[in-house]
């Protein structure tokens, strides 16, 4: 009657991955949880959650995610199903597809932009963009 499943250690701590400043990753990242990047990623990123690119963070590649906050640098194609927040210190180059967009004054935004309010993004383990050197977090 009261069979409650005990929460796992990661459920108790929250599900946010973090790559710290000074770390460089060359390859693809597939994450089912939220992600904060303060380092550098040269490759593609996919998540069912939110990505935060901190002020020291950068991505050169493609992003597919549910939500995103960008304060650092991004160069590539980004697809955000819901909300993309671009902070005042951000530098964005490439192509943007999102449900909703917020750009703070001062941001450098040199990208084509398409807003699709009902954008559906599905991330699977066997997505065509996932290359053999994929890093699973």
Provide a descriptive summary of the structure in words:
This protein is mainly beta and 137 residues long. It is 4% helix and 52% strand. Strands 1, 2, 3, 4, 5, 6, 7, 8, 9, 10, 11, 12, 13 and 14 form a 14-stranded parallel β-sheet that branches. The chain is globular. The N and C termini lie far apart (35 Å).
Secondary structure topology:
Elements lengths: L8 H5 L2 E4 L4 E3 L2 E3 L2 E4 L2 E3 L2 E3 L2 E4 L4 E3 L2 E3 L1 E4 L2 E14 L4 E13 L4 E8 L19 E2 L1
Parallel strand pairs: 1-4, 2-5, 3-6, 3-14, 4-7, 5-8, 6-9, 7-10, 8-11, 9-11, 10-11, 11-12, 12-13
DSSP strand tally = 14
Largest sheet: 14 strands, parallel
What is the H/E string?
HEEEEEEEEEEEEEE
The helix tally amounts to: 1
Low confidence ranges: 127-137
- Portion of residues in helices? under 10%
Radius of gyration: 15 Å
Instruction: Kindly report how far apart the N and C termini lie.
Output: 35 Å
* Overall shape: globular
Q: Structural class of the secondary elements?
A: mainly beta
**Kindly state the mean pLDDT as a whole number?**
84
Kindly estimate the percentage of residues that lie in beta strands according to DSSP.
Answer: over 45%
């Amino acid at each position: 009657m009261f069979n409650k499943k005990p929460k796992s250690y990661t459920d108790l701590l929250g599900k946010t991955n973090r790559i710290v400043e000074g770390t460089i990753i060359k390859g693809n990242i597939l994450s089912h949880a939220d992600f904060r990047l303060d380092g550098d990623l040269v490759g593609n990123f996919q998540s069912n959650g939110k990505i935060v690119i901190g002020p020291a963070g950068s991505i050169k590649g493609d992003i597919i995610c549910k939500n995103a906050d960008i304060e650092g640098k991004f160069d590539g194609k980004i697809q955000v199903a819901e909300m993309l927040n671009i902070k005042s210190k951000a530098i964005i180059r490439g192509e943007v597809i999102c449900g909703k967009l917020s750009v703070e004054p001062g941001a450098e935004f040199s990208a084509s932009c398409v807003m699709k309010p009902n954008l559906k993004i599905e991330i699977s383990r066997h997505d065509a963009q996932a290359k053999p050197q994929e890093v699973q977090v």
